Amino acid sequence: RSVYDGEEHGRFMEKLEARIRNHDREIEKMCNFHYQGFVDSITELLKVRGEAQKLKNQVTDTNRKLQNEGKELLLAMEELRQCRLQQRNISATVDKLTLCLPVLEMYSKLREQMKSKRHYPALKTLEHLEHTFLPQVSHYRFCKVMVDNIPRLREEIKELSMSDLKDFLESIRKHSDRIGETAMKQAQQQRNLDNIVSQQPRISGGKKSKKEFSASSELEVKNTSPMSEQDSGILDVEDEDEEEEVPGAQDLVDFSPVYRCLHIYSVLGARETFESYYRKQRRKQARLVLQPPSNMHETLDGYRKYFNQIVGFFVVEDHILHTTQGLVNRAYIDELWEMALSKTIAALRTHSSYCSDPSLVLDLKNLIVLFADTLQGYGFPVNQLFDMLLEIQDQYSETLLKKWAGVFRNILDSDNYSPIPVSDEEVYKKIVGQFPFQDAELEKQPFPKKFPFSEFVPKVYSQIKEFIYACLKFSEDLHLSSTEVDDMIRKSTNLLLTRTLSNCLQNVIKRKNVGLTELVQIIINTTHLEKSCKFLEEFITNITNVLPETVHTTKLYGTTTFKDARHAAEEEIYTNLNQKIDQFVQLADYDWMAPEPGSRASEYLVDLIGFLRSTFAVFTHLPCPFVLQGKVAQTACMSACKHLSTSLLQLLLEAEVRQLTLGALHQFNLDVEECEQFARSGPVPGFQGDTLQLAFIDLRQV
C-alpha cells in the first residue's frame, strides 16, 4: 500500500527483479548438484545390461548341452520299457492259458441256462464270465465268439424283460381309472368314518359293523406299514367287507414285471437306462391322463373319470416309490405332481367356466374336495386345489345369482301387487312363519284381514334364505374358518341384494304398464323388506356362529337396495302423475280472443282435478296409512300441483299468444281458482296451513 501511495514504483520493481535473479541462481545450483547422480545411475544401468546379455548366452549354451546329453538317456529308457513290457506279456500269457479251461466250462453252462430259459441264473453266470474270466482271456481267437455272443445274450434278456415292462405299463394305463375309483371310494369311506367318529366320540359297547372293522383294519395296516406311512392300503390291504369288496391295485395290476425288469437291468448295469425309460414312459402317460376330454364339462361323470385316472396314476407311482429302491424318487414324483397340479387346475378353470348349472358346480366342488383329500392322504400337497376352489366359489356365486335372477323375475311377474288377504289363523301363522312380521294392531283385528304387503315379500325373503343355504353348501369341507365362511356368505348375499334383486325391482318399476297403485305397493313391500334385513343378519349369524360385532365382519347392504328401489318407485309415481297431467293439459283449447268468459272452469281441468282427487283417494284407502300421511303422498301431491301450475303458466306465456282479451283472462282465472280450490280441499292430509296453495302463487301473481 505504501509503494502505491508513494512514488517509489521504480525502486520497488528493481528490488523485485533482484529477488527473482537470486532465486534463479539457487534453483540452478540445486539442479547442478543432483545432475551428477543421475548420470551415474544411467552408467550403472548400461553396465548391468551387458552382464545380463552374457548371462543369457550362458543359459542358452547350458540348455543345448543338456538336451544333447538327454537323448541317449531317453533311448535307453525306451529300451528298458520295451523289455519290461515283453516280460509282463509273457507272464500274462501264462496266466490266461491257465484260465482257458474254466472259461470254456462256464460258457457251456451259460448256453445250457439260456436254453432252459433260466434268465436270472444265466444273467449271473454271464456277469461272472464277463467280469471275472473273459477280461483275462479276451485276446485269444476262440474267445471272440464268446465276446460277440455275450452282448447279444444280454440284449436278448433285456428285450424279454422290457417286453414284460411294456405289458405292465399298458396294464396300469388301462387300470388307472379303476385304481383311482377305488382310492377315492376308500377316501370317501374314511371321511365318512371320521365324521361318524367326530359326531360320536365314544361308543359304549356293541360290535363293530363289517365296514367299520374293514376301515379300522386298513388304518392299522397303514400305520404299521414298513414301506410308507402314507400308504392308504389300496396296494397291499384287501377289503375285509365281504358284501362290498373293494379290490386293491395289486388285484388289478401285477407289479412283478417291473420288479424283475428293474433287477435284470440293475444286474446288467443299465439301471439308469431303465429308470430313465420308465420315467419317460410314465411322463407320457401322465400327459395323456392330464389331457381332459373336450366334453368333460357336460356331465359330472366326465370330471369323475378324469379325476379317477389322475388318482390312479399317482397311487401306482406312490406304490412304486415305496416298494422299489430308487426306481422313482420323491423329487421325480413331486415334479410330476407339480405338472399334474398345474394342468389339472388349468383344465378345471377352463371347463368349469362353461358350467351354468349351480347344482353341477356344487357336485364338482364336492368331487374336487374328495380328489384333493384322496391325494393328500398319499402325501401330495393340495393347497392349490383348495385355492382354486375359492375361485370356483366366485363362479358358483355367479351361477346362483343368474338362477336367482330368474326366480326373482318369476316372483315379481306373478305378483298381483295387492295386500295378502288372510281368512284364518292357520294362513296367518304360515305367512308370519315365512316372513318376520309383527303388528299388534293387525293381530287384534278379526278375520278376514290383510297384510300390508303383497305375496312377493315373503317369497323374496324365503328365496334370500335359500340362496344363503346354497352358499353355505359350497363352503363345506373347504377347511375354511367360521369367519371366512361368514364373510363369503355375506359378500355373496350382498351381490344378490345390491345387483340381482335390485335390477329385478328396477325393471319392474320401469315397466311401461305399471300403475300408481302397484308402485305404491312396491314402496310398501320394499319398506318391509328393508326392516327384515336385521333378521337376515341374525340368520347368517346363527348358521355361521360369527357375531356381527366381530372385527372385519362384512355388513349386509340390503337396506340400501330397498331404499334405492323405494326411491325409484317414488320417482316413478311423481313422473307418472306429471305425465298424466301433461296429457290432460294437451287437451286445453283456450280462445285467447274470446269476448266473454264461460260460466265454469274448463272441462279438461275439471277432469284433471277429478283424476287427482280419485288418485289420492285411492292412496287413502291403502292398508298402510304411513304412505298417505308420510312423505310419499305429500311429495306426490306437491309435485303434481307444482307441475300443473308450471304447465298452466307456460300456456299463458307461450310465444304464440300475442294478445288476449279480458274475457279469456277471466276464463283462465276460473281455471286457476279451480286449482286453488283443489289445494285448499286438502287432498292429502299433513300439509300445514296454505302450504299446498303456495304451489300456485306464482301463477296467481302472473
UniProtKB/TrEMBL annotation:
Residues 15-184 form the Exocyst complex component EXOC6/Sec15 N-terminal domain. Residues 384-702 form the Exocyst complex subunit EXOC6/Sec15 C-terminal domain. Pfam families: EXOC6_Sec15_N, Sec15_C. Residues 222-231 have a biased composition (Polar residues). One of its GO terms (biological process) is intracellular protein transport. Belongs to the SEC15 family. This is EXC6B protein. The gene is Exoc6b.
